[in-house]
Amino acid sequence: MRILGIESSCDETALAIVEGRGERTKLVRSLVASQVAIHKKYGGVVPEVAARSHAEALPAMLDELLGKTRSRTFDAVAVTAGPGLITSLRVGVDAARALAFAWQKPLIAVNHIEGHIAANWLDSKILPQFPVLALVVSGGHTEIILVRDHGAYEMLGATRDDAAGEAFDKVAKILGLGYPGGPAVSKRAEAGNPIAIAFPRPMLASGDLDFSFSGLKTAVLQHVQNHGRRRVADICASFQAAAVDVLVKKTIIAARQVQPKTIVLAGGVAANTVLRTTLRLAVSQQLPGIQYIEPRLAYTTDNAGMIAAAGYYLSQKGRVSDWQTLEPNAQWEIGRDENRE
Amino acid sequence: MRTVTITGKKKPVVVTSFAQMERFASTLAKKMRGGEVLALSGTLGAGKTTFTQFFGKALGVKSRITSPTFTLMQVHRIQNAKREMRITDFVHIDAYRLRGAKSLVAIGALDYIGEPHAITVIEWAERVKKVLPEKTMWIRLEMVKSE
Fold first, then answer.
1. Measured between CB atoms, which of B49, B66, B72 is closest to A85?
2. Do A163 and B67 touch (CB under 8 A)?
3. pLDDT bucket at B24, cuts 50 / 70 / 90
4. Which residues in chain A are closer than 8 Å to B93, comparing Cβ atoms?
5. pLDDT digits over A254-264, tens only?
6. Are A158 and B53 an interchain contact pair (Cβ–Cβ within 8 Å)?
7. What three-state secondary structure class fits A331?
8. How many A-B residue pairs are in contact by the CB < 8 A criterion?
9. Confidence label for A70 from pLDDT (cuts 50, 70 and 90)
């Protein structure tokens, strides 16, 4: 079965075709057009411009992806219906609804975070054994989610203020490293000493599975105010170490509580090498017997392959949406499904 | 918490702990009648989100209030609001990533801003000054440098 995936929730317009067979999904083709350069030019996000860029990019990308075989290229349409920027989400959702109607194909609403989790199964040799515990880290999300089965989620913990990726971006801003800040901070951290500055490990002893990164960002700001922007590499490395430390330790705590069979890492910050390595080591040393999967680097950033993969597993469970009524939901929290059967 | 000064119309309030911030926010929340717009300005880390969390909680928001940097706007239902007030929504907008005041129109924020059923808090409000109503309550948070 072939699924056409459409993603337009944030800065990337993306299309993909994924082939699903049994429990396996394989990426056939993927296209991504980024708007980051446009937002850079404007010095921020202009929602109308973002929506228009998605709308301008989509038809040509569809043409390129589907070619002459058109509707015979796919059997169902999966689309990100939330969470995200409402104006941008609407472009993808409306395109998906139109395709589903015109070509009489099933329509599947996918939660963006569910897509990030499904990126772990895409082209993976290892298949998930449920229950799965997912650490989701991105610019807008920091969550620990228990996945009982494809499409069955329970949020165990989340950030109480800023997402981890947001803290990386804001630290980059404090240090004058530009946008997007996360990769810039990680790059500078490579030459720094992670134990040079003892930044706080917020919420480590909170007794629950929640996170808080606002205070960590403020601690970096305070350090810069008191000591200046000297030894930026050390600041980056120490900040990153503090953030990764909390993320990994909380995941281990969660795993001890819920005893998953698999632990996965998901979201844009899953591209961070220090986070990947630290979590991988922690799982193998402290939780023997639990398998660990991380997404391929290419699938960590926003793409439509992950949306199509999630859509495939949902379609196998009959979790389809109605093209006549599907609406994007900017605040769609994973596990709360109003959009689909 | 660091020491923060909060400046509205009156002279600055000095806040030195989370408990004081919470008290300040809940005192302000009690004065709300519906339709108010609070515009927060201040540097990174000054406590805008912390204030917003305490303020929303005092208004009766039960859901988690986090920084809506990516979705730009988050609408929280207010439960157990005083019935005669008919305040049903707490609207949290973060203009940090936003460019241009008109952008608020595109995300549908004008359905809420100033409407009697909603209380709106806007972080980084100086970025979208133009479209805010005249009666907007401006609040500036500033970190006091430690000695």
1. B72
2. yes
3. very high
4. none
5. 999 999 999 99
6. no
7. coil
8. 93
9. confident
Residues 182-221 of A with CB under 8 A from B: 214, 217-218, 221
DSSP string, chain B: ---EEEESSSSPEEE-SHHHHHHHHHHHHHT--SS-EEEEE--TTSSHHHHHHHHHHHHTB-S-----TTTSEEEEEBPS--GGGT--EEEEEE-TTB-STTHHHHTTGGGTTT-TTEEEEEETGGGGGGGS-TT-EEEEEEEPPP-
Q: Which two tokens stand for residue A102?
A: 């015109």
At B146 the pLDDT is: 61
Is B135 exposed, middle or buried (CB count within 10 Å of its CB: 0-12, 13-18, 19+)? exposed
From chain A, pick out residues whose CB is under 8 angstroms from the CB of B143: 221
Q: What is the pLDDT of residues A76-115, one digit of tens each?
A: 999 999 999 999 999 999 999 999 999 999 999 999 999 9
Q: Which amino acid is present at B53?
A: Q
When CB atoms are compared, the residue of B49, B73, B100 closest to A161 is: B49
Which residue of B70, B96, B112 to mutate against A (max A Cβ within 10 Å)?
Answer: B70
Chain-chain contact of A140 with B127 (C-beta, under 8 angstroms)? no
Write the ipTM: 0.71
